[in-house]
Amino acid sequence: MVMNITLGGISKPHSSKNMKTGDWGTEYPVVDEEKCTACKTCEHLCPDGCIVVVKKEDGEKVAVPDYDYCKGCGVCFTVCPADAIKMELKEMYRLEVC
Amino acid sequence: MRKVIRGFYAVAHAVKLSKPSVIAAYPITPQTEIVENLAKMYSNGELKDCQYVTAESEFGAASILVGASATGARTFTATCSQGLVLMSEVLLNAAGMRLPIVLVNTNRALSAPLSIWNDHQDSMLLRDGGLIQIHVETNQEAHDMVPLAFKVAENPKVMLPFMLNMDGFKLTHAYEPVDLLDEEHVDKFLPPYEPPVKMTTENPLTFGCYAPPHCYMEFRVALQNAMERAKGVLEKAYREWTEVIGRDWGGHVVADYADDAELMVVSMGSLTGMVRDVIRELREEGKKVGLLKIRTFRPFPDKEIRDALINANKILVFERAVSFGHEGPVGIEVKSALFGLSPEFYSYAVGLGGRDVPREEIVKMITDVYDGRVEQGFHFGGVKPFEEVIT
Lengths: 98, 391
Description:
The structure holds 2 protein chains of 2 kinds. By secondary structure, chain A is an alpha+beta fold. Chain A has a domain at 30-81: Alpha-Beta Plaits (2-Layer Sandwich), CATH 3.30.70. Chain A has helices spanning 41-45, 75-79; strands at residues 27-31, 51-55, 61-65, 85-89. In chain A, strands 1-4 form a two-stranded antiparallel sheet. In chain A, strand 2 and strand 3 form a beta hairpin. The longest helix of chain A has 5 residues, at 41-45. The relative contact order of chain A is 0.26. Chain B is globular. The chains are: A alpha+beta, B alpha/beta. The A-B interface holds A 3, 5, 7-13, 15-16, 19 and B 96-99, 159, 196-197, 204-212, 215, 218-219, 222.
């Protein structure tokens, strides 16, 4: 099969969405929905727009990370005033060292 | 029209005739009067349909041209030395983005120690960057190669940045008689730039997008293929130049007395003129020496070089730069072109940081090699005895 590449690596708008970068990080943020106050501090400070506060079906608002693009920098974890976010090591990095 | 002018003006005049759409440059040292002349032409209204942008740095100047070139503009800048180093990150991107930016690099030394004088250390730093690189011997050749640079860089089979190297001071500041091109001839040789792709406000594009391991290599192979194609496109353009303009500068390389020379001397840039003169004199004395002038440095004309040097049993390369920890970069390349052959091989780094290279020194280096008075390998020419001390 022949792969098509564009001259100079040119791409059209929005095509970068196809490039899922969520597997880059070593850790990922996990939100404790009980503790989250939906204050949006994480949403404002995430450098990649990867955590947003959404309204759940029950009407409660909560921060939800976008694991497709989150690179695990931990800014949300650092800035959360309610201590509602913790960073967890991804499964593939949990090695048992003998 | 034949005029006695400085190298700066020879280049600026040819740039004007090439009708660039955007010129961006940083105006302070190590900048030259090339862009000063262009700025003057711009303010006089001589540069029609052109934007002249004074940038905050060489990095900025190159970045402005990347943006301009992506919109389909014909682009030009000039720099050298530390300015080229500062531009280098952007220029390597321009190569990968396949943007045909033309720049004139007025070869000068790199710091430290601080030097603004001539050698080839700056352009050699970008040897592996994917830029087409040629070196010229005279201001007339520099003048003539400017429209050719645009034509080759913008060829749809090529689409690569083009760096025209001319020796700083030795050429740029020198007054020489130059037969100035006119609009009619340049228009006949150089058509307007028709970009195969360009971004507009209606058609936004990203250039040089992210290429993960599964596709990065293919882009680099495409870059290598473009360089290989550039060899043929350049050669054709050199010939076409002669047909349209009437001046014949030769192809990728120019060889004199290669058929029967026992010693072939390899030179690149402004030094070549004096080397040629010395070789003519030595010929008159019956010494079988010849000259190979390298014009195209990237893509590297390995076959042409091998063909020109194949009959000689001694090769001497004059270098204007050093790959520290190894030897002179031109010698390294020439040796690779000669793989499998086994001539005696000598190289001399001369004139670093603007050190004068007197005629008698060239005569001595050539005759020392010819008469077998020096060891094979890499040498420095014209160095004073010194000792390195602490303060």
